[in-house]
Design a protein that fits this description.
CATH topology of the largest domain in chain B: Aspartate Aminotransferase, domain 2
Distance between the termini of chain A: 40 Å
Shape of chain B: globular
Number of helices of chain A: 5
Helix content of chain B: 40-55%
Largest interface: A-B, 25 and 21 residues
Helix content of chain A: 25-40%
Number of domains of chain A: 1
CATH topology of chain A: Sufe protein. Chain: A
Structural class of chain A: alpha+beta
Shape of chain A: globular
CATH architecture of the largest domain in chain B: 3-Layer(aba) Sandwich
Strand content of chain A: 15-25%
Order of helices and strands of chain A: HHEEEHHHE
Strand order of the largest sheet of chain A: 3-2-1-4
Number of helices of chain B: 14
Strand content of chain B: 15-25%
CATH architecture of chain A: Alpha-Beta Complex
Oligomer: heterodimer
Number of strands of chain B: 17
Radius of gyration of chain A: 16 Å
Chain lengths: 160, 413
């Protein structure tokens, strides 16, 4: 069989960027936090992604965030990147990030607010999913779980 | 190969031409449609029959005294007769037209089971059922205090028949089993199951959604009590399907839904129900869908169910063999008797990622839990990739699938 030149397929490469594959293979913060102050479950019934998000909040600051579960490369990488990003942020700023990321991935008209100052460069690696409507849910699952956890909702969130 | 066999297979290969949707490019690759177990494409004749009805014959059925209503009724009831003959039901009263397999099973749960079940009674299913053959029974069990019992399966995805036999008891009120498993492709030993259940005088429902498109189904030879299936898995339109039920059982069952068409006479003192099969068909039905289903039956008969089964068996063998040659391949569902479907996992690539990459190569497969979460739990996996073949698939489709899987492996290597 002839080797397939995978570089020819830029669109696929745009979805499965090296950063995404790295975080999917070696997810960061992939463990339980025993003394978490906030937790929520996220379920994507379409492809069976299931994760539990943990956050430890001190005052108004997320001092630690982590997750456990199983899912596709996109959902695992997104959870890994997210927990990296929100560690050290105030709840308010983390929720701004939630609005920014979900807005960018789901709303073609989305415009970043003027006062949004958090560096989302790494999260931009997920922008490729915008061309895959069925995969946007994978990329936003962890963010919905975070939103649910810090708002203290106990029901599992579902992207369906 | 004899001359007649050659002719037969050249005619099966020609079938592909009859399906307009198959002749397109997806992401600049020819479409390899390997998801017929989820929903099959429709031949031109089905599309035409529906269009003809919509353009010329549309009116409500069983009501008007005018020409169009006569035509619509004739086409709708004509389809029922075709279906009766197709599954060899003994008469047309036994062919209830529903919205699909799911409604057919819910009808039996609510109309047959609910009035009969007592606390402690049991409904026996298997571990490999589709959610449509689990949840309706859970609902009726909650309503009545009955218990849902699932017979185990083995690592190949076959029913543990000894365990099944032992679970049949004097508490069992109904056995409900997939004819063919949608997630694993296992063809269940339904003749044995029915024989055993009959020995205990227990009625049997077969979920035939994955059976009817792939093999001859003769409900009298099977001697099943109920047989449920959907049009869209047998090359017909979505939103319509069938419940076959034995006349004596159906006669004893109360209506499932109330409304127009299912009554003889309505007054505020009470209502007299219509006769079979109309007693179970409240409201204006999916007329165009049923007409399309009738055309799908004609199409299947024109190709020949035995030819279809033979073609698909060869193709499934080829697919299983080709998939098995891929390093890192784990086949899920390796029963000795199978139809149409192969589930699999490759390396540690999540099925959903695989599905997206395959789509980029023009290959359409199903990924996920296939509405059979207990099956996924049994194998300890969140889901699988599933390729399924139908009469219009060929070896090129399989080769395209295999090449696309190898590409996914390169991306994830």
């Amino acid at each position: 069989m002839n080797a397939i030149d995978i570089n020819q397929d830029d669109e696929l490469r745009d979805l499965y960027r090296e950063l995404i594959l790295d975080h999917a293979r070696n997810p960061r913060h992939f463990h339980k936090i025993d003394d978490a102050t906030h937790t929520a479950e996220g379920i994507n019934p379409l492809c069976g992604d299931k994760l539990r998000l943990y956050a430890k909040v001190d005052g108004d600051v997320i001092t630690e965030a982590s997750f456990e579960g199983s899912g596709c490369a996109i959902s695992v990488a997104s959870a890994s990147l997210m927990t990296d990003l929100v560690t050290g942020l105030s709840i308010h700023r983390a929720l701004d990030c939630f609005a920014e990321v979900t807005g960018r991935l789901t709303d073609p008209e989305h415009q970043t607010g003027h006062d949004f100052s958090i560096n989302l460069d790494k999260i931009r690696a997920l922008d490729g999913v915008r061309d895959y409507p069925s995969r946007v849910k994978c990329a936003t699952l962890a963010w919905h779980a975070l939103n649910s956890a810090v708002r203290g909702q106990s029901q599992p969130v579902s992207t369906e | 190969m004899s001359q007649s066999q050659e002719n037969r297979f050249s005619s099966i290969a020609d079938c592909r031409r009859d399906f307009p949707a198959l002749h397109q490019q997806v992401h600049e690759h020819p479409l390899a449609y390997l998801d017929s177990a989820a929903s099959a494409q429709q031949p031109e004749s089905v599309i035409e029959s529906v269009a003809h009805y919509q353009q010329r014959d549309h009116a409500n059925v069983h009501r008007g005294v005018y020409t169009l209503s006569h035509r619509a009724t004739e086409a709708y009831e004509g389809a029922r007769d075709k279906i009766r003959s197709f599954i060899n039901a003994s008469n047309r009263k036994e062919v209830i037209l529903t919205s699909g397999t799911t409604e057919s099973i819910n009808l039996v749960a609510q109309s047959y089971c609910r009035p009969r079940l007592q606390p402690g009674d049991e409904i026996l299913i298997t571990h490999m059922e589709h959610h449509a053959n689990i949840v309706p029974w859970q609902l009726v069990c909650e309503q009545t205090g009955a218990v849902l019992v699932a017979a185990p399966i083995n690592d190949a995805g076959e029913l543990d028949i000894d365990a099944f036999d032992k679970l049949l008891s004097d508490r069992t009120r109904l056995v409900a089993v997939a004819h063919v498993s949608n997630a694993l492709g296992t063809v269940n030993p339904v003749e044995h199951i029915i024989r055993r259940a009959k020995a205990h005088d227990i009625p049997v429902l077969l979920d035939g959604a994955q059976g009817v498109p792939h093999m001859n189904v003769d409900v009298q030879a099977l001697d099943c009590d109920f047989y449920a299936f959907s049009a869209h898995k047998m090359f017909g339109p979505t939103g319509t399907g069938v419940l076959f039920g034995k006349e004596a059982l159906l006669e004893d069952m109360p209506p499932y839904q109330g409304g127009g068409d299912m009554i003889l006479e309505v007054s505020f003192d009470g209502t007299t129900y219509n006769e079979l099969p109309y007693k179970f068909e409240a409201g204006t039905p999916n007329i165009s869908g049923v007409i399309g289903l009738g055309a799908a039956v004609d199409y299947l008969l024109s190709v020949g169910m035995d030819n279809i089964a033979q073609h698909e068996t060869r193709l499934l063998d080829y697919m299983t063999q080709q998939l098995g040659n891929i390093d890192g391949m784990r086949l899920i569902g390796t029963a000795r008797s199978k139809a149409s479907v192969q589930s699999f996992l490759v390396d540690d690539i999540h099925p959903h990622d695989l599905g997206t990459i395959l789509d980029h190569q023009g290959v359409a497969i199903r990924t996920g839990h296939h509405c059979a979460m207990p099956v996924m739990d049994f194998f300890g996996i969140p889901g699988t990739a599933r390729a399924s073949v139908a009469l219009y698939n060929n070896r090129d489709d399989i080769d395209q699938l295999v090449d696309a899987i190898r590409k996914a492996q390169q991306i994830f290597s």
